[in-house]
Design goal:
The complex is a heterodimer of chains A (about 400) and B (about 170). Chain A has about 400 residues and is mainly beta. In chain A, the strands form two sheets. Chain A has a 16-stranded antiparallel barrel with strand order 1-2-3-4-5-6-7-9-10-12-13-14-15-16-17-18. A two-stranded parallel sheet of chain A has the order 8-11. In chain A, a hairpin with a 5-residue loop joins β9 and β10. By secondary structure, chain B is of the alpha+beta class. Helix content of chain B is about 40%, strand content about 25%. In chain B, strands 1-2-3-4-5 form a five-stranded antiparallel sheet, sandwiched between helices. In chain B, α1 crosses α2. Chain B starts with a helix and ends with a helix. Classes of the chains: A mainly beta (about 400), B alpha+beta (about 170). At the A-B interface, β2 and β12 of A face α4 and α5 of B.
Chain lengths: ~400, ~170
């Protein structure tokens, strides 16, 4: 009886994988005409998609597999003239959640300088900015980016960006609204850090603007180096209609915000068949004791995350445009890297390490089939959890 | 100070005479780069640098994006001015060829967005100089990829490849 049950599960899994194989979408993303609609040269359409199959593997327990159209994003861009454009991305996550991922007006004021205003991606780390699925290895985005950045991080603001030093240095300077830290109750948490505080331009509110910046240096051949910063304070509804002369109310409101100082460095190296990637982000959070005491949360005072990844295109020497990339990545992210003295104690379960190895098969420019095996561990003595992930990554 | 200024003034006056002569003798129907003075000066300076001649003239070539570079009735090279697409916009670039349709220089004239600007890097564009386009696979392999600029890189490579192939056929 037991043996028959196990065979049924195995057969079902094979069937599921067979269905997934047949949903590979092959597109030729090279055609300019696909990006221009009708006779209107100003309109550009595009999109990307991430479709996942995730299954936890555990020796003694069975786990259901999860299948998800994780992201389906449509890009609408309109170029009014040589200097002014509108860029927008509309995202459907998990089929039912609709979001606007980007929506900003861009105007070039001088040859290499432009001003953007609207809903924009915060330039922290690699994957928050470059997140089209065929541009990264692994079915899912990195957990360092998910928990520490936190991706997809986009807020409303104004930015100045440009390039200098003969196009070897690019910069972006941005004023944005910050995280929602308190809206009647605390929003941040020890396990997911600032992630729940992302306002995503859904009726965002702002107490005071934050400052974000990014610099990319391309002076070294084949290497793209980035430096990102973020300085500010979280927002709080306790500051709405607040009488600033009322000391008690002010002290109470002050306990609902935290200061955020983030710095990230990242590097991407690509030459021939080899690719390397690394990222290191550190987030310094202040006033966390007061915040935790007021809201009952367990936010740490320092969060840290880094990863190192190596990839190799096994088909580089063969005469084909397809790529088969074998990669391995190690991630370490800790939302309780430090806690403020005299408050909560460090939860070692929040110190997480992931090892992931996998393959990516590029069938065309913008269509990729991914497979990876992920080993996640946390704390010191917790058992590890393994996952198999399979996915399709599309970009056109 | 005066010593360094004189050669520059001399060079520029040659360029200005060059522009006046060509505008007077020929009319162009190709891309509107000729209306952009900065681009014109860039291109003419490059022609002067590479062909070492201030007596060059440009002649349009069958109503396409190519121009024949002539020095006193003798063909010394070709000029391509065209555009390709970046992630959300288009960009203009030019290529200088010798009489064998081999690439002598590639430069981006106008890049209109922040994504993929890495292709403007002169060192990266140097990879196209003298590149062999006999085998598309080898050609694609020879040019380095740029992380974060995939669309623009592929667009540049493909545009240059197709245009160079076309030129090779034209001059046969």
């Amino acid at each position: 009886m037991k043996k028959m049950k196990r065979n049924n599960f195995f057969l079902r899994n094979v069937l599921v994988m067979g269905v997934l194989f047949s949903t590979i979408i092959i597109s030729n993303a090279q055609n300019t005409a696909q990006k221009i609609i009708g006779s209107n040269q100003g309109l550009h359409l595009g999109g990307y998609g991430q479709i996942d199959y995730n299954k936890q593997i555990n020796n003694d327990l069975n786990h259901n597999a999860k299948l998800d159209v994780h992201r389906l994003v449509t890009f609408f861009g309109y170029n009014f003239n040589e200097r002014t454009s509108f860029i927008s991305e509309i995202e459907m996550e998990h089929v039912t959640e609709v979001y606007v991922e980007q929506a900003f007006l861009s105007h070039t004021i001088k040859n290499n300088i432009s001003v953007n205003a609207g809903l924009m991606l915060i330039p922290m780390g690699i994957q928050n900015l470059y997140h089209e699925p065929p541009t990264f290895n692994g079915v899912e985005r990195t957990n360092v980016d998910k928990y520490i950045v936190p991706t997809t991080w986009r807020e409303m603001g104004v930015s100045v960006n440009g390039r200098t030093m003969e196009d070897l240095l690019s910069y972006e300077l941005m004023l944005v609204n910050g995280f929602n830290g308190y809206d009647g109750e605390g929003v941040f948490s020890g396990s997911s850090g600032l992630r729940s505080g992302r306002q995503k331009a859904a009726k965002s509110y702002m107490t005071a603007p934050d400052f974000a910046s990014r610099f990319s240096y391309l002076g070294i051949p084949n290497l793209n180096l980035g430096l990102s910063t973020y300085f500010g304070e979280s927002e709080s509804t306790a500051y709405d209609a607040l009488d600033l002369s009322d000391e008690n109310a002010l002290a109470s409101a002050d306990s609902t915000i935290i200061g955020i100082n983030m710095i990230g460095i990242d590097a991407r190296y690509q030459k021939g068949a080899l690719e390397f990637r690394g990222q290191y982000i550190i987030a310094d959070l202040s006033n966390t004791n007061q915040y935790n005491a007021f809201t009952g949360k367990d936010l740490g005072s320092k969060m840290m995350g880094y990863y190192a990844e190596a990839g190799y295109n096994l088909l580089a020497e063969k005469e084909t445009n397809n790529e088969l990339i074998a990669f391995a990545r190690f991630e370490n992210y800790n939302t309780h890297n430090e806690v403020e003295e005299g408050g909560i104690s460090i939860n070692s379960n929040y110190d997480r390490k992931d090892v992931i190895i996998g393959l990516g098969l590029k069938l065309a420019k913008g269509a990729m089939f991914k497979l990876d095996y992920q080993i996640k561990s946390n704390g010191n003595s917790n058992p590890r959890t393994d996952h198999i992930n399979i996915g399709t990554a599309i970009w056109f | 100070m005066v010593n360094t200024l004189v050669p520059i003034v001399v060079k520029f006056s040659k360029v200005i005479i060059f522009i006046m002569i060509t505008l007077l003798i020929f009319s162009f129907t190709s891309i509107k780069w000729e209306e952009d003075t900065k681009s014109k000066i860039k291109i003419y300076n490059s022609i002067y640098d590479i062909f070492h001649s201030d007596r060059c003239t440009l002649e349009s070539f069958n109503d396409n994006d190519f121009n024949i570079i002539k020095e006193e009735e003798k063909i010394i090279g070709y000029l391509l001015v065209t555009q390709s697409f970046s992630k959300t916009n288009t960009f203009d670039y030019y290529v200088l060829y010798n009489t064998q349709a081999e690439i002598l220089k590639v430069e981006v004239l106008s890049y209109r967005e922040s994504h993929g600007f890495e292709i403007c890097n002169k060192r990266w564009l140097k990879q196209f100089i003298g590149i062999n386009i006999a085998s598309e696979f080898e050609y694609n392999n020879k040019v380095d990829a740029i992380s974060g600029a995939t669309i623009s890189v592929n667009s540049t490579k493909s545009s240059i490849y197709q245009n160079t192939q076309y030129l090779k056929k034209l001059i046969k």
